[in-house]
Amino acid sequence: MTTRRPALSRDPAPRAAARSLPRGSGPLLVLLLWEALARATASGFIIAAPSQIVHHLATHAELLLRALGTTGWAALRGFVWGNLAGVLLALAAVLVPRGERLLSTLALLVFCLPLVATGPILRVLYGPGAGPQVTLAALAVYYTTFLPVLVGLRAAPQGWFDLVRSYGRGRMTELREVRLPAALPYLVAGLQIAAPAAFLGAMVGEFTGAERGLGVLTVRALRALDLPATWSIAGLAAAVSMLAFAAVGWLGRRLDLAPPEVLLAPPVVRGRRAWSGLAEAALALGVTLLVWKGSMAVFGLPRFFARRPEDVWSYLVTAPGAGAQRQRLFAALGETLVLAVPGYLAGLLLGAGLALALALRPRLAGAVIPLSIALRSIPIVATAPLIVWALGRGATGSIAVVATMIFFPTLIACQHGLARTPRAVLDLFAVYDASPLLRAQLPAMLPAFFASARMAIPAAILAVTTAEWLATGRGIGALLATVASTSDYGMLWSAIALIGLASVLAHALLASVERRILSRTSAEQLAR
Amino acid sequence: MRMSARPDIRLEGVAKSFGAAGRRIEAVAPVDLVLAGGQMTALVGPSGCGKSTLLRLIAGLDAPTEGRISIGAETPDALRRRAGLAVAFQDAALLPWRTVEGNVALGRALARKPRDPRAIRDLIALVGLSGFGRRRPAELSGGMRQRAAIARALAGEPDLLLLDEPFAAVDALTRDRLNAELPPLWEARGATSVLVTHSVAEAVRLSDRVLVLTPRPARVAADIAVPLPHPRNADVLASEDFRALCSDVTEALRVHQFPQSVAAQ
Ligand SMILES: Nc1ncnc2c1ncn2[C@@H]1O[C@H](COP(=O)(O)OP(=O)(O)O)[C@@H](O)[C@H]1O
Ligand SMILES: [Mg+2]
């Protein structure tokens, strides 16, 4: 199958330049520098030397492999369930177009719930075992599959639908012959992102009191300030995530699928009035509260830990002591936002800025992009403590964690967007010897930029709460960790509700900025 | 059981406009037409005049803003629902994940005709794509894609065949060959067909009647019958009659497309 595509002729020049050093000397040099740096800063407890890591890996091989197996198995199960849910949700949204907005909002809301908060609740629900790990892995992936598959199911050109209609065939034929095959490359793109995310979800699930797994070892190593162990686990998690990422990519290439045109471009709805947006938001809120309350009643969950919406209301508003509780929650949220917002913006701007810079220097892109793809797949939970240790427990560390988390996906999405500038348009600018950067490439990049800005909201929440929980001990992440260990479920549920609300608001704000800007720069994105 | 395979197409006061009030684009002005069953009618006119729109109305893919269309005793929708028509779209609309064979076979499958690999292969050979059956559309030139789209349209054995500039991207030599070899196919089936084309010679050569349309909104500017004998062999094409018809069509096009230049003469 793969032989069909003609081999691409590569420009040999940059390779020849890179070969001026003996083969393999680059990585060796990096290793030596790393070792030297680690030894020089040994007193700072930041960097573990490669020799220490290798030693740790060798002496704890059996333990690490067993933990890896446990976490990997939970991640795999979560991967399957989460992606299944994502695909089914996308199908439902396409088959019942009227329900699509509501479905999308609910899916987003659930995705924005911080894993570090849902984890402890799931632990109480499931008791011991792998339940929370699998569920969190599924929760970590379903949305990043739902969104591209939804786009893929709808991205087919009108002509293909006309073809099916011209034979008098209906929606099911349309789905079978056009939408599903058209969505397949988008599904693969989603699965690729999902593979490392599932691993991350499973690890977070293990933080909540599992008996075995890499997450358990991470917590243990952090408590003991065991540097080689932390680095070994981070390296192991990163390697597995990258392997999973590469494996799905390989599968996609084996299937000989054309890559999707727009990665994660958001579904854009045209001609909505302000009040209809408000009405939708109100409807989504109502349905959320109903599902929340209803599911607890149906499953007969004890009120002790399964708090209903009205419990949260009374906890924060009417109960005695509500004022102090409210103050504690909002103070923590404030501490978190002060870090999350700058990190979020920095990550977005750096990612987009680098993408634009690389558009000017295409040669560099060849080196930077594979690296970014690799780094994007490293689970943040494993690296967050290291970044915080390196940059300190102050604001810089947490901001850097958030920015790192957002930077890579934004860079890659913007690259995809830039690549969509039509060849003929670039040629036109070249003919006049004018730079296409601002007038052609930037507008082409914006839809992808906003798409990644949307996806970055939950990513930022996850990053900042994880950093707070594991490393800095401040903000809402730390609050969640404390109240989870003291079984203060009122506060736990209140925090979840507040974070969910805040992220949906942030999303709505972003969507309105996006509509305003895109309607000026790329009307064709809004046309469908 | 099935009704005659030679349905007349009847347009009564059919008009189509796009867009909301204030920014309305009138694509087709009210037209009354009867296209005789079993005949090939050619539509020629300046680009953007509404030819594709008219074809889509006849196919029932769009609903007219005014008036009604019937095909035989049926509405376009009813004809479509029993897979009685096929369209070769201007942009080919091949599915990129299917091979050429797969795309042509889809034409039969969508029309609910039994599978017939032989017929598919013959059609592919007929449009000159033998040896490309296993290729994907991305590996074909624009002209090859259009030929595959024609094969797909023919594969469903339609009673009504709608061709929207089917040879626009096909090179001149191949086009000439297709002009010679394709008509026997639909003539044998007695299908009613409508062909949109920019080539005056092609319109006259392939059709029994040429309708020259005005710039947007489309109106019938000239209705020119083509009483040449079938098959249109080299003798016919070399005849004085053929040339006279071609210059009639060209003149009608010119008068309506550039009225000023005519007045100045
Ligand atoms: N879906 C549509 N929405 C708005 N305008 C359309 C649409 N389809 C066609 N038009 C307009 O109708 C006119 C006729 O188009 P068309 O029928 O495609 O012309 P052509 O004769 O070149 O095939 C054009 O001005 C075109 O812009
Ligand atoms: Mg047209």
Structural overview:
The complex is a heterodimer of chains A (528) and B (265). With 528 residues, chain A is mainly alpha-helical. Chain A folds into 3 domains: 47-261, MetI-like fold, CATH 1.10.3720; 272-299; 302-528, MetI-like fold (Orthogonal Bundle), CATH 1.10.3720.10. In chain A, 79% of the residues lie in helices and 0% in strands. Chain A contains 22 helices and no strands. The radius of gyration of chain A is 24 Å and the shape is globular. Chain A starts with 12 loop residues before the first helix and ends with a helix. Chain B is of the alpha/beta class and 265 residues long. Chain B has one domain (9-77, 87-263): Rossmann fold (3-Layer(aba) Sandwich), CATH 3.40.50.300. Chain B contains 11 helices and 9 strands. Chain B has a 6-stranded mixed β-sheet with strand order 5-6-7-3-8-9, with helices on both faces. In chain B, a hairpin with a 6-residue loop joins strand 1 and strand 2. In chain B, helix 3 packs across helix 4 (117-126), helix 3 (100-110) packs parallel to helix 5 and helix 4 (117-126) crosses helix 5 (142-155). The longest helix of chain B is centred in the C-terminal third of the chain and has 18 residues, at 240-257. Chain B is globular and about 45 Å long. The mean pLDDT of chain B is 87. At the A-B interface, helix 8 and helix 9 of A face helix 2 and strand 5 of B. Residues 18-19, 25, 27, 45, 47-53, 216 of chain B line the site of adenosine-5'-diphosphate.
